[in-house]
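dumping the sequnces here before i forget
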Amino acid sequence: MQRYILLRVFHTIIALLAVSIIIFLLVRLSGDPVSTLLPAEATLEDIERVRIQWGLDRPLPEQYFAYMGNVLQGNFGESLKWRGQSASDLLLQRLPATLELAGLALLVASLAGLPIGVISAVKKNTPTDFIAKTLALLGQSMPSFWLGTMLIWLFSVQLGWLPSYGRGGIANVIMPAVALGLFQVAAVARITRSSMLDVLDSEYITLARIKGLPEWKVIWKHALRNAAVAPLTYFGVIIGGWISGSVVIETVFAWPGVGLLSIEAIRSRDIPVVQTIVLFFSLVYCVSSLLVDILYAYLDPRIRYDS
Amino acid sequence: MTTFPTDVIAAEKTGWRWPRILRRYPWFALSVLFLVLVLPAIFADLLRAVLPFVHDPETGKLSQRLLPPAWIGPQELNGIQLTPGGSWEFILGTDKVGRDVLSRIIYGARISLLVSGISILIAGTIGTTLGVLAGYLGGWWDHLIMRLVDISHAIPTIILAMVLSIALGSGFLSVVIVISLIYWNSYARLVRAQVLALRSKDFVARAQMSGVSTFKIMLRHILPNVTNTIVVIATLEVGQVILLEATMSFLGIGLPRPTPAWGLMVADGRDLIVEAWWVALFPGLAILLTVLSMNLFGDWLRDRLDPKLRNL
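..and the predicted 3d for all of it:
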């Protein structure tokens, strides 16, 4: 078990290092940020001066190591677009908004997905199952930006019940959270369903029924507890999906979170901020996959002895 | 989605079932797919020549901007016309510069089909090659390729798409490259698993003993047996690819204006959502129907060809 964890941690670190190199290179391939950010009247000398000032004239490996050295000390550079603010500050400022959104989306996904999966499994191959599976599939086939836009149209423009953009109270957060969470409802429902189907066949469920427990207790209290393991381990993938999803949803709803920040930074070629955000997202994804893998290995010893 | 025996239940009650030919193939999914994606993509120009309500997707007259769908009449207040009604010449309405929405959707199908088709071809080729190499040759090939897969997993999809789009710019080729670089790893991973299973089989051992070169074994013996897997992965991924392309176009990092890409149309429509809801609704519906039917078809194909991929 120890060995497995160490191996996985090692792989994660290598992956993150590789990601940092790749992002470093890619971002610098896109053309000169200096000329895009300076006003049009800037002379060639001005451009050179700023370039030297920002260290962009040094050879690439040197830039990379300088960057990584700074990163390990916690300095992620200063934003090019939002002068005077460090990239890490910007990220931390916007993080609570995204966490709020992701947390509520998680609530939506599990509150909707788990029951749908359970009911689907219990009423397997009946019309209820068919409807549930179709709804789930529908949720996965829908473009999230379109869903968000249609929700805005329905609840803000037509009905006027909910505000259409920005962060504020509960009313502001409902639509973005639903739009973000809906995508995962399908996946959660599917996994819960197949996991429940496995569990419902086992002996202790039959025993519970023989004991005379009411059916609802058998399903919701006993079967679900064991079946819930599978969706939990899918959690890591869900988080990855939300990272991507938050970019789109925050754009649609003008939600001031990290996703929106990343789009703005990309558009302005704000290298330090882009690098910081990508590293952050990759870190979150890698760490959550790692935790999920460890959890899974803990629960299912067979996995520890593969590869 | 698998066929399930509600028709058996129905039969027990009423003694009637769908005819066998209808039950065997996913007709619903296939017909939606054809109607929304394949036919418009192939016959767009023909439709435009023949039908009076299909126009040029990239030009529009400002005099006909923001017309509502044909079945909606003019809005009046006290006898004064506030907004014009729709016309049957522009069945689904027009956008901000007067381009017909239906025509753009039809031409957009071509874009979606081309982008997803080519990307999947490239991603599939790269991924399968790496998967076969990793699975059959093992050793450091396997380690290297699996590490590459890990790394490509580490960066969330949209983020990678955004960063790659900075490096590559916008345009058809960049979008194809971006998508290929994101989706190759499913092939690599699953083909490798398949190859690992095949490697210990008798026919491979016999080929090795007969002195067939490694390359030939991989090409002639291993590869044909993974085609099922490849096809299933491809069909299951087309939906995601189309969604990714649409999302990229929506965010402004995909195809450039004035291409009639469905994602771009929804982006335009979002700005107009208050006064012109039709500009956003119909392209999004097109995306939805395409991806849904593709997913249904892919599920059916997977159940037929390689059910072990159920967890994809």
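Chain B touches chain A through 48 residues (CB under 8 Å).
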